[in-house]
Every structure is written in C-alpha cells, then in structure tokens.
C-alpha cells in the first residue's frame, strides 16, 4: 500500500542480525501512513487530489515555512538518505493529502528554510535520542507514536521505535489493565474517543473494545514486528501503524498468521519477506530480542505503555502515557505545539 | 496572609445555609496565592518589589495586552464585584510578583483591551461552566487547580470549585491509590516533581510522600473547606491553596484541629470565623454537603481526582487528571497555551 522510495524496496536482509541496530530515526522508512487515515479524517480530500505547494500555502501562509515545498530533487534525495526524513517530511497529520503511491514524498524543508534546516539536521550530535516503547495492543501507544512521528521533524530529536510486549510488563510489575476497574473503563472509552479525534489518529472505540483487548494476545504480532525490526527496520513504522489500524480502526484480528500477513501486505512488505519473518517468530533470536526490549523498558521503570525514554543531559527520563509529550518537550527544551503541530522548519 | 478587598472582609456569614450557592467564579475571592509561592519559584523577585506596568511590558511586549495594567480603579472595582475576577486578574503564575497584603490586586484587563475584555465578561450566557472536583490530599488536583485559576481569565469559562472527598470516591468505585503499585509509585514521584516545576506549582515530593498520604485522612480538612464553602465561599480558593501548601510544600499535618486553624489563618480567615467553621464540621449539614458533592462527581463517572466537569453543548463532559486540560480546551473551543499561559486579554 505504501509508496516506496528506492532505498526502502523490500527484500530479505543482507545485513547480519548481529550488526549494530541502526537508529530508526536515521532509517529510510517513509513516514507516510496509509490512505485509509486520510479518508477517515479528511473525507473531502483524497490523497490523489493533493497539491503540495497549494497545501503548504494554506497551512503556513505565503511567507511561512511549511513541511513541503519545491526543494530540489537532488537535495531532497540526499536528505532522505542521510536522515530518513525525506519520506516523512513536515509535520501535522502525516497522512494529510500526501501522495502514497509512486513518486517521492514531499521533503521536509522548503526552499527558503532549506539551509537552516540542513544545518540543523547536520547537528546530529546535539539531538536528543527519544525512544518510544510500545505494543500495538495499546491504543494510547498509537497516539504517542503518531504525535512523535510529527514532532521528529520539528523537535531536535532522533526518534527510535522500540517494540516491546505489554503483557510481559504487566506481569512483571503486577499492573492490571486500567479498564478492569469498571468506572475507569467507562471513562477510557470516552477519553480515547476524544483523544483520538483531537490527536487526529483514527482509533475507533466500541463498547466492547476492552473485551476485544482482553481476548487478544499481541505476542505473535510483537514478535513479527520484532523480526522486521531486526531485519528490515525500514518497515518498522508502517508495519506497526498497519497493526494499529487493523486492530483499532477496523476491529479485526491481529493474532493469527493470516491476519499478520495481511497487515504486512498493507505495510508494503513482499510476500517473501513476510513469510520469512513469520518463520522467524519462533526463533530464540526474535523471542530473546522482544524479551530484552521488554526487560529494558522495565529497567527504566515502566509499568505500562506507551513508555517514552528521552536520553537527555546524560540521563534517561521516563515518561508514561501519551499525555506527557508536552512535559517531555519542556525537559528537552522543545516547545509543545499541540498534537497536530504545524511545521516550523 | 492574603491581601483582602472590601468585598471579601471576613466575618461570620449573614446568608442562610439554604440559600442558593453562588458560582465560585462569580464570587469575590481574590486569585492571589500566598507569598511563599513567589518565594519558592521566583527567589529573585519578592512580591513587594512588584511593579505591574513594568511586568506587563516585559511579559507581553509594548503593544501586548497583559494581565495587569493601569485600568481605572472604578472600572476595576465594578468588574471585581461582577465577575470576581478583579482580585485574581491576569494569568500566568498567580503569585508572580503580585502584592498580597493591603491594596487592590492587579485588574485583569489593561487599558487598551479593557473594552473588549468588558464585553467578553459581559457575555456570561455564553460561558462554559467548568467544575473542578478536588481533594487537598491529591497533589495532581493542585496542579489542575492552579492551571484552571490561570485559564479562567483567558478562556471563556466560569470556574466552580467543588471540594469532595477522595476517600469516598476510592471506596465507592473500588479504586486504589495508584502509588500502591511500587513501580507506579516510583514513577509518580518523578512525574510529580517534573510536573510541579513545569506547572510552576510548589508541590515538593519526598520519597516518603505516599506513606505521608496513606497515613493522613483529609476528611476533617475537606469538611472544614466545605463549611467555608457553604458560609464564606470567598475564602474557598485561598483556603484550599493553603491546605495544599501545608501538606505538599511544607509536609505538615492537615488533619488535626490546630493544623486546620493554622491553615485558615494563613488563608486570611479571622479566628472567629475559623472557630465557627471548625464547630460546623460535625454537623449533618456539612457532612451531607460533602457527601452530596462526592456523590455528584461519582454520578459524572469519576473514579479519582482531580475530576473536571465541563458543561458544554447541553452535556457534562468529565475529564480525569491534571493532564486533560488541553483536551478540555479542544472540546470547549479554547486553546491550550501551556500550564503557565500569558494573558491574551
């Protein structure tokens, strides 16, 4: 489903599993969510109707610096290869009228701001590493995921996605799903509806949403995601998003192999790659990697997800929930501009 | 300790208890927190050094509209009587260099913006009633309390304080204090430290903070606050704030009669008024009022505090926690400007 750049063409990995894992913020995965999202939130505006220059003008005003614009193709490609930001440039709802199939996605830096932008991206040493630990069974994790996807082009951060297993965290800490308290469950239903709308993330709640969670294990899905993370990390972001869409927008299964393969296809993985990843999920390598990531976030002090760990000033800072991104910004010296920020670069 | 306007001079109530309870947003209580707060956060700037015009210039720029300014005294008094905003004008940290003893506090509307401001305050019918249900044992309630105190001068809301009993809510819903989960307790300690700093509210956390909570009942304090709410609501705000300061800044007792009298004195209540309120706390009238308020917030779906209920579009909307004020704003059509907003009027 996703339009792919040359760098992210699927294929089985040539890298060894033991190679140092690249920072996902530096990967080549495009930050372009599926068309369904634009349809869900912008029904009058299909991606195919998009016109980047026009959009930028409307969003930022004539003199403003938007997230898309007519920067040179060569510069665009260079930036894309260097920072992985070429595919997912700009901020705001990532799916807002952005072309998905064919062609290159809009670059993050428009003409006038390109120099400043390039200089900023060049200063990688000064960037804050922000790790998002998540499980696709967690709807609040989706909110944090999308919001951080937007902010990685605005804040001076390297965003790293860390798939972990919520069931393991709950078991290890003795935590219980919050919705097990009936009043809290009722509230969460309303809260998620409102938050989803405000964050422009298509979580669709239903009265039986929590039964749906309780009856589903995300273990196989998170192992599959882990296998992809280890082998073809450029798919980590679209794959994770497609799992959330399937479970939280479409209310369909994500635990069975056929469901997982369908999700992978939506995320743009080839049948061959998906099949190989599916075979890997029962390997000790993948199982141990998921266990290790889960153990790591527990070590940071997590008791649920999403858990955001910002490495700042020589220390890890844990933030729990999708509602601490403003606080995260204040700690790392970046300004919160709401869940759907306008690009400033 | 609080500087008082003529309207809020202490004295035992002449109103009958059965009289309709005024909206607190319309009361005459000044929104001026104690000097200790300015000392805690602005050590280089004592309230007595304040210069409102200068401050406004620094905060809003020469052409900006600040929260304080040289509006006419008559207009100021009129507004103060009508909307209760005269004493607590402006936004930002309420205690920022604002005189506490003697004299009138800064008005909310500076010269140039006075007309617009007056027109807005005049449109009471269009204002959203926002109720804050709180217990002074809850530190997150304090964050919400102070943030809403700032926003009531920026958003088109009538803010009503609703003292309730957290113990009753927990018992009725089966909820447990979150810090009972060890990992969550560790996290909350850090979270509260960071949030307090970011919200500019002097919650001082200590490693034994949660034992401190568990070993303290707020029932007597909340009954005392309720008695004052029923008889002299102009003191509800400063009294509640002083309870938080005593418990969460100074780590002192708030359960014994002598502690409560000390708090009341700090809030500016006369010895006579405090003594009478203390005698009232065992009356069925006060007990029932606290029970009724607690039952009311339970009916709205609360399972903890703070609980904010916004009456908007013909419906009550419940928000749990101090971290949903941005969402609250989005629902009622008001913009979140961070926990310490600059005044826009």
UniProtKB/TrEMBL annotation, chains A, B:
Keywords: Transferase. GO terms for molecular function: glutathione peroxidase activity; glutathione transferase activity. It is an enzyme of class 2 (transferase). Residues 60-70, 83-92 have a biased composition (Gly residues). It catalyses: RX + glutathione = an S-substituted glutathione + a halide anion + H(+). Residues 1-118 are annotated as: Disordered. Its EC number is 2.5.1.18. GO terms for biological process: glutathione metabolic process. It holds the Pfam family DSBA. One of its GO terms (cellular component) is peroxisome. Residues 46-57 have a biased composition (Basic and acidic residues). Residues 130-330 form the DSBA-like thioredoxin domain. It comes from the Eukaryota. InterPro entries: DSBA-like_thioredoxin_dom, GST_Kappa/NadH, GSTK, Thioredoxin-like_sf. Belongs to the GST superfamily. Kappa family. This is Glutathione S-transferase kappa 1. It comes from Taeniopygia guttata (Zebra finch).
């Amino acid at each position: 489903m996703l339009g792919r750049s040359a760098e992210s063409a699927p294929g089985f990995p040539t890298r060894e599993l033991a190679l140092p894992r690249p920072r996902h913020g530096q990967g080549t995965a495009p930050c372009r969510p599926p068309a369904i999202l634009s349809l869900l939130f912008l029904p009058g505006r299909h991606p195919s109707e998009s016109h980047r220059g026009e959009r930028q003008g409307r969003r930022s005003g004539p003199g403003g610096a938007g997230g898309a614009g007519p920067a040179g193709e060569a510069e665009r490609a260079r930036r894309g290869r260097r920072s992985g930001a070429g595919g997912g440039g700009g901020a705001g709802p990532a799916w807002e009228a952005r072309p998905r199939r064919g062609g290159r996605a809009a670059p993050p830096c428009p003409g006038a701001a390109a120099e400043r932008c390039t200089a900023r991206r060049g200063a990688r040493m000064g960037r804050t590493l922000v790790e998002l630990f998540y499980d696709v069974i967690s709807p609040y994790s989706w909110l944090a995921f999308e919001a951080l996807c937007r902010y990685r082009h605005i804040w001076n951060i390297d965003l790293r996605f860390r798939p972990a297993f919520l069931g393991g965290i709950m078991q290890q800490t003795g935590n219980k799903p919050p919705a097990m308290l009936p009043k809290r469950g009722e509230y969460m239903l309303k809260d998620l509806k409102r938050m989803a709308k405000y964050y422009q993330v298509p979580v669709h709640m239903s009265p039986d949403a929590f039964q749906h969670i309780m009856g589903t294990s995300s273990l196989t899905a998170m192992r599959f995601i882990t296998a992809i993370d280890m082998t073809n990390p450029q798919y980590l972001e679209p794959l994770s998003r497609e799992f959330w869409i399937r479970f939280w927008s479409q209310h369909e299964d994500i635990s069975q192999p056929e469901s997982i393969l369908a999700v992978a296809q939506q995320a743009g993985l080839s049948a061959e790659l998906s099949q190989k990843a599916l075979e890997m999920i029962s390997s000790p390598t993948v199982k141990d990697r998921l266990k290790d990531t889960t153990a790591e976030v527990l070590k940071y002090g997590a008791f649920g997800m999403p858990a955001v760990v910002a490495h700042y000033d020589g220390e890890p800072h844990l933030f729990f929930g999708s509602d601490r991104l403003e606080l995260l910004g204040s700690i790392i010296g970046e300004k919160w501009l709401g869940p759907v920020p306008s690009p400033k670069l």
